[in-house]
Amino acid sequence: TTAGTPNSSKPRMAIANLVIIPQRIVTLMRTLPPDAVLASTAKSAQRRNTGYLTHAECKAILDAYITANNLVDPLDPIMVAPDGPICDVLYRPTKKQLKENYQMRTEYPSRVSRPILFELWISKMDAAYALVKLPMNEIVSMKRGIPPKITIEVEKRQNKKHITRIRGLEAYHVHAATFAQDVSKRFACAASVETTAAKGRAALMKGCSEITVQGHLVEELQALLTGDEGKMLSCGHGGVKDGNYGVPRGKHVFEVVTRKGAMAKNRKR
């Protein structure tokens, strides 16, 4: 099948949350091994030497630093005595915090448990993510920041009719025109594709489109894109049968917005 075409046997995609250690932290903690920071031993060849780390790899780097600098409490191995660089990285106020509260004072802890230390450590990293094709675990793309969302909006029109708009498909390698044509056939409704946002609508990113579909099809579109059997059963529409564009499942992927009095559908039991 071609990219962006539905197929019940098509590999599903998933999102892997990754992190990147900021250069300022690498500079502060001078003894961090450069190879580890670059993910040189990553299992995935596509991540090797890129700096994109899994949470486990990132925690292992801090753990190795703690051990190498003899920061473990010999009487209680779960406790750590953070040194100056760790305290600066994890506890020093940011410029923004100091600007908001110039009298802010920070007392560095003398002992911290590993779980708390690791949690703080991850929170200081730059967010990143990978789009992974399952079950091969093949990385399709890796980017900084948080995963993009597919936005689905439903709006009530006159005579109790609804329209549903969807944008953001391109981030998950779904071809908008192909999808619109498929939706039109499956649900016997009109579907149009716009590459320029209509007046009053938020601007579209370069190379992205917005699809407008007649009808209240929020769950149907999610079921069709993900192949989620639970969603298919919930929406109860035969048009979603054998649908699967390989889009990852979950609320972290889809953002559903209701406009102008649109309500959730009453499903038949």
TrEMBL record:
Gene3D superfamilies documented for this protein: SUI1-like domain
A Pfam family annotated for this UniProt entry: SUI1
GO molecular function: translation initiation factor activity
Gene Ontology biological process terms from the UniProt entry: formation of translation preinitiation complex
Domain of life: Eukaryota
Name this polypeptide is given: SUI1 domain-containing protein
Organism: Proboscia inermis
Ranges of residues in domain SUI1: 150-229
